[in-house]
Amino acid sequence: MDITFTDNAYNTKHAGSPLYDRDHLLTTFQQARERASQLERQILVSITLPMTAHDPQVVFRMFQHLDLGNRFFWARAADKRALVGIGEATVIETAGPERVTTAATAWRELRQHAIIEKISSDLPPYTSGPVLLGGFMFDTLTPHTDLWEGFPDGLLILPHLLFHADEDKAALTINALIDADDDVEQRTDRVVETVRCLAQALQSGIDQPVEEAAQRSGEMRTQDILPAERWKEQVAQAVKKIRAGAFEKVVLARGVQVEQEEKFDIDGTLRRLSQSYPSAYVFAIQRGTRYFMGATPERLVCSEDGEIQTMALAGSAPRGTSEEEDRRFGEELLKSEKNQGEHNFVVTTIRDALSSLCSRVWVADAPRLLKLKNIQHLETPIMGNLKPGHSILEAIEDLHPTPAVGGYPRLPALDAIREDEQLDRGWYAGPIGWIGTGGNGEFAVALRSGLVDGKRATLFAGCGIVADSDPESEYQESCLKLQVMLRGLGGEL
Ligand SMILES: C=C(O[C@@H]1C=C(C(=O)O)C=C[C@H]1O)C(=O)O
């Protein structure tokens, strides 16, 4: 079973021992229990072990056999980074407009007095140690419906087990919260058994090629939540408001309900999304029978050692059916005043938001094209150096919602969404990602996404509306964006 882990100093030292050395784990848990009793609080224990690289999709599938609870998937095929978690050592759940700040405080508190072990120096540098996975609702002030039950305003999960990998290293982190009166012998045995089961599952499944997703046996039925004509009227109304000077841009979203005879195949959907959108963040967060999942091209913010990277992504055109047509569409997008306008609101807003958090902000001179499978966007890379003491959660607090998903100026645009959109966005277009120690982490904007529950799914897509938007073109653009999840679920093959 040791083949699951690399032949690192730790395993060599403990050659022949179980995957995780029981005695060592027990000593750590005992130490945590003592600390818990002295300080009269729970103590976080986080242990990271090196592991041989595995396909994150396979790990996600194998995790299901562990019976540890909800799973979480996050991967970007292009840079070979992945985080796959299962279970909840603890969760930080927050509510209200202060949901991000409250989560940041709870995270700081949780880390205090923690015992963090890294059983090698050969580990993915940014994701080793305790890492929280989760996300935030787009807007806490819109009335919530049952649709998003289980997805609170803010949710950060410390998983029991986290598989994480970068381009050349992979590791497993085991997290636990220890109480003063915990039976640490029993806790130790449970962890050792869980890791043993995982190793076994991976070993037995490791040689099996990831099978092609089962073909759908029946029809996938789709229905607009708001009839197409009504949505286009909304767009026309928004254009009128903009021309009357109420605001300059608003992003209006629409939802589509999808149903089929059989349950949607979550693992297969993730695989199709990863294959079709290698540069996107492919994600899934499970709450019971529900999965919020998608393949978003939009990074909200990535922070590594104080350097943050973000982007303005707004302005869209279809891909051409020939190389020539594709180039033409791209050139027209780059020259389009309408698209440049809606893009520039995003650039300006992000630059302003970062200027208070960062000692230096760098913005590319001009947007470039980001070409995805069926759509192309204007993209401006933006970077900055976080001032000491600031973390990624503060950046999220300031950046979200950017005018790429909200509007410009922010407040009147959000009011218009609340009044006119008639859609419970829930976590759609909210920040989703992970945060580690030292302020590192990465969050994306949860676009090209849907909430999947058994045989049903609700998919979302939105478009930036400006003074010269045409309702029909915006509707067509939203259809292109919806295709990501429709195809991901196995439809429109
Ligand atoms: C709102 C969405 O996408 C956003 C809106 C875009 C636009 O209006 O051109 C482009 C990219 C995203 O920032 C979505 O995919 O649902």
UniProtKB/TrEMBL annotation:
Chain ranges of the Chorismate-utilising enzyme C-terminal domain: 229-481
GO process annotations (BP): salicylic acid biosynthetic process
EC number: 5.4.4.2
GO terms, molecular function: isochorismate synthase activity
Reactions the enzyme catalyzes: chorismate = isochorismate
InterPro entries: ADC_synthase, Anth_synth_I-like, Chorismate_C, IsoChor_synthase
Keywords: Isomerase
Family the entry assigns: Belongs to the isochorismate synthase family.
PANTHER family, sorted: ISOCHORISMATE SYNTHASE ENTC, ISOCHORISMATE SYNTHASE MENF
Name of the protein described by the UniProt record: isochorismate synthase
Naturally occurring in which organism (per UniProt): Dictyobacter aurantiacus
High-level lineage: Bacteria, Bacillati, Chloroflexota, Ktedonobacteria, Ktedonobacterales
